[in-house]
Amino acid sequence: MLIVGLGNPGSDYENTRHNIGFMVVDELIRRHNAVKLSSSSFQGELYKFQNHFLLKPLTYMNLSGESVIKVKQFYKLEDVVVIHDDLDLSFGALRFKKGGGHGGHNGLKSIDSKISREYIRVRMGIGKPEHKGEIASYVLSPFNQTEQKCLQEWINKSCDAVEFLLTNSLEDTSSKYSQKAMVC
C-alpha cells in the first residue's frame, strides 16, 4: 500500500493546516522506524516499512500527483491512501472515503488527474475561515493555540486509523475511527 501525506515542502509551511498530511506521515515514519528510500526521480520523500510505502510529495500541493504516479508505477502499487486537510469538515474531524470529488483541493485535483479518483482518502477537518477570500491564507497558516493543544492527539488517532486500515476494511476503519470534530 502507498500511504501519501499531502503538504508543502519547506520550513515556511511546516506547521500549517495544509500540511496535516505530512504531520501524520511523519508520525507513521517515527512509529514504524520506516527506512528512507532514496531516489530523486520520485519528487518526494519516500519511506518503507513492511510492505508499505509512505510518501511526502515535495512538488508543492498543486503537483502532488506527479510524485504519486511515479512511486505507484515504479513499485507497481495498486492501493493508495491519501491523507489530506479538508475545509468542509470541522477542526479535528476524521472521515474516510474512497473516490469522490476533490472539493477544490489542488493536491487531490493533481492526484485525480494522474491516477484517477479511486483511492482511499483520510479527510482531516481543518474548519473554514470566516470569508471565502481568506481560504489560501487560512490553509497556509499555523493551527491556533487552542487547536495546538489537541493536535498531537488528533495526529495519533489518524495514525491509529491508517494502521488499522492496513489490515481491515475501509468500512470497519470508518466505523471505528470517524469523528465529527475534536474538542480541545
UniProtKB/TrEMBL annotation:
CDD domains referenced in this protein's UniProt entry, alphabetically: PTH
Subunit structure as annotated in this protein's UniProt entry: Monomer.
Record bears the keyword RNA-binding: yes
Binding site for tRNA: Y13, Y60, N62, N106
Protein name: Peptidyl-tRNA hydrolase
Domain of life: Bacteria
GO biological process assignments: protein quality control for misfolded or incompletely synthesized proteins; rescue of stalled ribosome
Active site: H18
Gene Ontology cellular component annotations, sorted alphabetically: cytoplasm
EC class of the enzyme, as a word: hydrolase
Family: Belongs to the PTH family.
Originating gene: pth
EC number: 3.1.1.29
Site (Discriminates between blocked and unblocked aminoacyl-tRNA): N8
Site label Stabilizes the basic form of H active site to accept a proton, positions: D85
Organism annotation: Sulfurimonas autotrophica (strain ATCC BAA-671 / DSM 16294 / JCM 11897 / OK10)
Catalytic activity: an N-acyl-L-alpha-aminoacyl-tRNA + H2O = an N-acyl-L-amino acid + a tRNA + H(+)
Pfam families: Pept_tRNA_hydro
GO terms of molecular function: peptidyl-tRNA hydrolase activity; tRNA binding
Task performed by this protein: Hydrolyzes ribosome-free peptidyl-tRNAs (with 1 or more amino acids incorporated), which drop off the ribosome during protein synthesis, or as a result of ribosome stalling. Catalyzes the release of premature peptidyl moieties from peptidyl-tRNA molecules trapped in stalled 50S ribosomal subunits, and thus maintains levels of free tRNAs and 50S ribosomes.
